[in-house]
Amino acid sequence: MNKALVLVLIAEFWMTIGQICLKKTANNRALSPIYYLRFPTLWMGGLAMLAGLLFWFAALSAGELSYVYLLGSIQYIFTLFAAHFFLHEKINAAKLTGTLLITLGIILTAVS
């Protein structure tokens, strides 16, 4: 497994955690934007996104942009399943089909 692929996986893992935390914050329906600052999930989400961004930069420096950027699509897969398990969102046939197509694209890119 090459270095860029590992770095992308780590980056997208952290970005997915960040997205889940930020969605949990947004679900609180705060009365004002300042009120959101009181939620720890906002800060955890921001830090997770920052960690993901740092790993993303490392991945970009380790591989070709066209390769790394396409592999970044794995976040769609991570997010679909994380949203299902942590936010109890439904996975329907259209979402699953789209995710399978993304997975196929990632596999074809990774082996090329």
**Helical run tally:** 5
Q: What is the gyration radius calculated from CA atoms?
A: 16 Å
SS-based class:
mainly alpha
Low-confidence runs (pLDDT<50, min 5 residues)? none
Helix coverage percent: over 70%
- Counting DSSP E segments of at least 2 residues, the number of strands comes to 0
- Summarize model confidence as the mean pLDDT: 89
User: Globular, elongated, flat, extended or rod-shaped: what is the shape?
Assistant: flat
Structural notes for this entry:
- This protein has one domain.
- The longest helix is centred in the N-terminal third of the chain and has 24 residues.
- It has 5 helices and no strands.
- Helix 1 packs parallel to helix 4.
- The chain has 112 residues and is mainly alpha-helical.
